[in-house]
Give the backbone structure.
Amino acid sequence: MTDLYKDLLIGVSGGVIGAVIGFLLSLWLVYYERKKKLKALQEAFYREFRILKLNLEGWLLNLDDEFKKTVTDTYSGLREFDFRFLEALSIEIISSGGLLSQEQREFQTRIENKIEGIKVKEEKRDEDIDKSNEAAFRIPRHHTSYLLCDVVEAIYFLNKFIDKKDAFLISHNNASPTRQAMIAYKLAGVEFELEIWESVLSFNPHLKNKE
């Protein structure tokens, strides 16, 4: 074998090896970037649920106070939350190779419906508040009790969803309404008073029966 042929063979072999290494490196970079993007999307996905939970926890404090006082110079409302961004994140996660379980997708639908239901009850409460004296609004306790029960349930399940992530199962819930309230109040940093909560449940017999 001539030296020229050897040099040519070595050159070709080196070129092939270099091309293979370059191809494998590009594949790894694409994979790395995709994993990085997917991780960022998943973090943003759960961050949105945390924001919703924090909004509800802040409102729980106000609702608890409004249930106790009934007459106040101001009253609270639920902060707006845009579920369209959450839906867009879900689509991006799936298109980037990630997975959302059926339980996760079902929970996303349920919590959106729950928030829509809360808004309807909030509007009904707002309509029935006695605003004849702007220095002393009279808030119907039964309306506030409905909101308290829904907000407690939402916080409880949001906390489970964020904690369990893709291992979350809606069916795995044996907590009574009172147990849910104890957990939600603790998460919100609000003192839980059993006597007050029993008064809340008295306006919600369908929940009291689940105790």
